[in-house]
């Protein structure tokens, strides 16, 4: 049976590669590209006043003088805030990411925001323009990128986004073509579970047109508690460990397609992009034995997601219009075995539909002595709907709807300018103002506004300060999700210092109210004169929030005292039931400092005869580490740098190295549970979650690539924390030890190994990589004051994977 499953899995994973290569066969003609402007880069036309000023400022060289004129690369972001980090195509190639998704994962220390607002990936731009969704570009090979810019959160306001995430701008090359297949396999060094991945893609840029087609498949086998020797909760049925999964059995297949065309004569009057994607995910997990029949209890799920997006960009005189529309439909079916001996299953169904539209108009309507006033106008409408039914609910199905109409404005007002001679001694000072309004159909009206200043003291040193006020509504499911009662959930009770099997109630809470956020950010960006490529970033954040919607916290004595009606205990004080509907916290206060540096440079001396770009990139996302991204990659046929796909060297024969290191220190993190309730200090042993809040944390990434060989690492360190006990008999503090994780990846560009290619031409334009995630096999150790490990914090429950080893082969045609 096992051999049959492996055979079926191998055939299933091979399908995407075969299908895309079949489509890619006739695409070889695209290798003969026609030069043209940067793909899909629709730039703002210059207004007459600006053109006249440019003519007046033109410098005529005198005899014997050499005048160097710098021009802005088409697709660059035009903002007063300087980039935190800029990467050239050689820098990007040395990271070795297989796609933009993988590159973002590797760059997480630089792209992460310390604001503490928002979640998920940063704001992503393509050639300086908004896109309908990340799907438009997630499978673009890094070899196609000419330059990458990472910018501070304030720049997001210029593109209609909130200022809670950093901005990444990808500038594509003028021409490019690649057909790529990847295969990856990995598993924990202790075995038990494995992950297999296969991907095939076709990507092409021709003039203003772009085409990207990617097919992916992933298979993960299950890992059971019995394979890690997990101790069971007291009262569990004997043999339950063999019927409880730590990692679910899962299979996923997906296809993603993007097509872009230029508009007007030669495609220079705007661009239209269409995107579509489909994903199917099947999972199966087990959560114990039936108390009557002793058969395993399973939870089986199936989710199918269909997504589509449209981006329309067009210059309107001196303004730039961008309109985006993104929609998704996700249908989910879950079957949960009943634990009553009937061999029946409960069924949960859900339909999630979203549609988001946004129109932005960017221009320079007013000229001041210090420069042009930049203006962004935006208007949009977002709609979301959730339809669900669950046979376990006490209130039947649910139909939730929300419409969100929004409008806003952002102004960038230059006050002083060295270039224009307006108070040049003061440097470059720009004022940034924004305001917006949202009206939610199920909640009411929300507003936001912000004010900030950017001060470029010198060409290398810049300061920023911002004050942001924002109102936020509870999520749609926080308000209206159906009530679900789930029995026999293992939960740690901090009051009694024990793990109990508890009946948990979850769902929505209609009593939640509007949240108000007031934040201050101060920043410094200094280009260090020690190296040609180095900078120091320092950022301070102070956040204040009132009426915060939050998931129900861990059950400590303070939380139980604040919400006594949510907790049910038996006559002996043992926890038997908990109502975990969302709650409203009276206020939150936090302050933190995040600082770090980015260093980089060349390795070796330039070689006059060097050509091309680095080889096919490494990839693959495996458990325990960032998704892929630890090899090196370069331009395939038709790429801007020329040379064969993935088989050349850097443009001047040199290698690259880089190192980034960031440290975050928390000065305060306090929560008032209720207006008259306890004030919790999360840095001093109080807790809302099951792990405490660390005062210090460190992120690092770095590596080098030279002559076909590369080595990269990422690492994180989190300081120890604790959760205070109640002082009652049986209660004790919990100590969470420091945790350091290092992920390592070594890779070799097989195309640069001449003897190997001569012996086996297949290895031309191929790359092999070996990754070890959690190199030191570290897990956070949790103990009470006696040194004992609570049963709910066993190391293999906290991290069942541990050290993970994977191999990957990537080939370009």
UniProtKB/TrEMBL annotation:
InterPro entries on file: Beta-barrel_TonB_sf, Plug_dom_sf
Organism, scientific name: Novosphingobium piscinae
Q: In its UniProt entry, what is this protein called?
A: TonB-dependent receptor
Lineage of the organism: Bacteria, Pseudomonadati, Pseudomonadota, Alphaproteobacteria, Sphingomonadales
Top-level taxon of origin: Bacteria
Entry's Gene Ontology cellular component terms = cell outer membrane
Range of residues in the leader sequence: 1-29
Q: Which keywords accompany this UniProt record? A: Cell outer membrane, Membrane, Receptor, Signal
Annotated spans, Disordered: 604-652
Q: Does the keyword Signal apply?
A: yes
Bias type Gly residues, positions:
612-652
- What does the UniProt entry say about where the protein is found? Cell outer membrane
Keyword check for Membrane: yes
Q: Which PANTHER family match?
A: PTHR47234, SECRETIN_TONB SHORT N-TERMINAL DOMAIN-CONTAINING PROTEIN
